[in-house]
Design a protein that fits this description.
By secondary structure, the chain is of the alpha+beta class. The chain is built from four helices and three strands. The protein has a single domain, classed as Sufe protein. Chain: A (Alpha-Beta Complex).
Length: 109
């Protein structure tokens, strides 16, 4: 018998979907690990880069990895981000931390 409940989906959003920059991350938590991580955001290449980078930093790791993620770590992985897009790593980090909260509120990692 497993110590973990069956796989469940977690979601976290930061920003204002439909009105400016935003990220929504969705992850499947299975056997204590973030088995798959997907995101939606505004349709610019910088959002895609930040979303892919942030997803890669937590996918396959325990839920606690979300709370350890920093804006600086995302920015470093992405390289130099234009000044007009500097809010994207912050929004991605906030959305992933919201995802972690949704996981702990509904039964823990």
């Amino acid at each position: 018998m497993s110590n973990f409940p069956s796989a469940r989906e977690l979601t976290g959003t930061a920003g204002n979907p439909g009105n400016g920059s935003y990220f929504t991350f969705t992850a499947t938590l299975s056997e204590g690990l973030l088995a798959t991580v997907k995101f939606t955001s505004v349709g610019c290449p910088w959002s895609a880069l930040v979303g892919i980078s942030a997803s890669s930093m937590i996918e396959g790791r325990p839920l606690t990895a979300c709370s350890e993620l920093t804006v600086q770590a995302i920015t470093k992985l992405c390289g130099q981000i234009p000044r007009s897009k500097e809010e994207l790593p912050r929004l991605a980090c906030e959305a992933i931390k919201a995802l972690a909260v949704s996981g702990t509120v509904h039964g823990g990692p």
